[in-house]
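Writing this down once: the sequence line spells out the residues, with the fold written below as integer tokens. I am pasting one below:
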Amino acid sequence: MPRRRAQIAFLLAASLWAVSCFAGPPRCGADRLDQHARVNYVHDGDTVKLEDGQSLRLIGINTPEIGHGGAPDEALALAARDALQTLLADSPRIALRYDSERRDHYGRLLAHAFLPDGRSVATLLLEQGLAMHLLVPPNEWNFACYQQAERRARAAGRGIWSRAEYRPLASTDVAATRGFRLIQGRVERVGRSAKSVWINLEGGVALRIARTDLNYFAGLTLESLENQVILARGWIYPGKRGPVMRIRHPAALEWLH
């Protein structure tokens, strides 16, 4: 019974937390607009150059990477870039809605972007299956709406979700996989160290939550994940004992069963 109560508490807290963060009208519309800007160049599906010379990284999504320095393009990277160019073809002017953090560690401007008719750029790309939802805290605004847009595309098998390399990968098959992926597996153990909480999946994959990020998980009983099958998203990198994925926010986890 204690474990069952913990599971229910986890699900209830996650659901209430998602609802409380949802803002704006249907289809992820803006609750306010902070600035208008003109796009001069589209680098890829989630990054553009503005008229004033700044690079803008769109909040809420991650699109396939266009190869640089001789590296190949990821599948549908050009399709994501072309889709963004098409959205901006009639008018290169966009409205920006800032979040808690306005710059990333590369110095790029961060914002949610909207077309002149009010449509969310991130949502349009997510619904076409040309982007994955990505939440990088502290920028949490509208994440629940973006999640739903991605889930609709996943359920329909659109875009990247029609391709094996983007579908969730079993944790037992991760091995030497690198980069941004969705992985699915059963939780074998949840442990705590001085600096992190570790969620160990079958197959030797470890999900790491830094203690500095635990405030985002307030009210969630992470130990209740043991023996459950979850879906996690993030960047996979090599650790001392196997592949590691850093999890910074509950939005990066889905409880399957």
Notes: The chain has two domains: 35-158, 169-255. The first helix runs from residue 2 to 21. The helical segments are 2-21, 77-87, 121-127, 143-156. The mean pLDDT is 89.
